[in-house]
Amino acid sequence: MLLDEEPAALIAACRQSFKIDSDRSAISRIGSALSDLNTFRSSIISQHSSQLQKLVRQQQTLNSQHSLTVSSHNPTSHASNILRLDTEKFRVAKQASDLEIEEERMGAELDSLKSTLQEVEEQGPEGGEALERELAHPEENETVLKLRIYRDLGMGVEVDPATGDHNRVIFQKSGDVHYLGRDKKMDLMFYCNMFWDKL
Description:
Elements: H1 7-18, H2 21-72, H3 75-123, H4 128-136, H5 138-152, E1 155-159, E2 166-173, E3 176-181, H6 188-198
Antiparallel strand pairs: 1-2, 2-3
């Protein structure tokens, strides 16, 4: 009986009986979704590949900079710079200490000059008791004159508060300050020669 019917009609009847149109439509939608998914996946992969290449280039640049920095670093030069800076630091510290000592000395000298000025003002134009003392003790006046001459030459003396003796000489020349202690074992010629050399 089947052979008596048209094969095409039989196939069409079977297809209509199974109702595969909805399945075909679903398969078409699935195919379209897969195509979109592949397109999106390709786009993501392309973006990530571009970012990866960019990061690779940055890494190469950083590696080159690091290599250049390492090759240009000289440990010997660095140590030399550190030593030079330390030397400069100690030199500045010594200069600051010398300036503090000089400031204290000049402050003491200023106080002494203020006291002398006050005495002179109190004595008046005639000189008062101080003039009488100078006339009575000319050797003291000679000592004061010598001290003034030494001071003009850049030399000064410090008085020991305990004994009242002049036990240390101060030399000032070109901004430098030097100190010389008094030693009774040395003769007068030794100090004369040293003073002359300092001048």
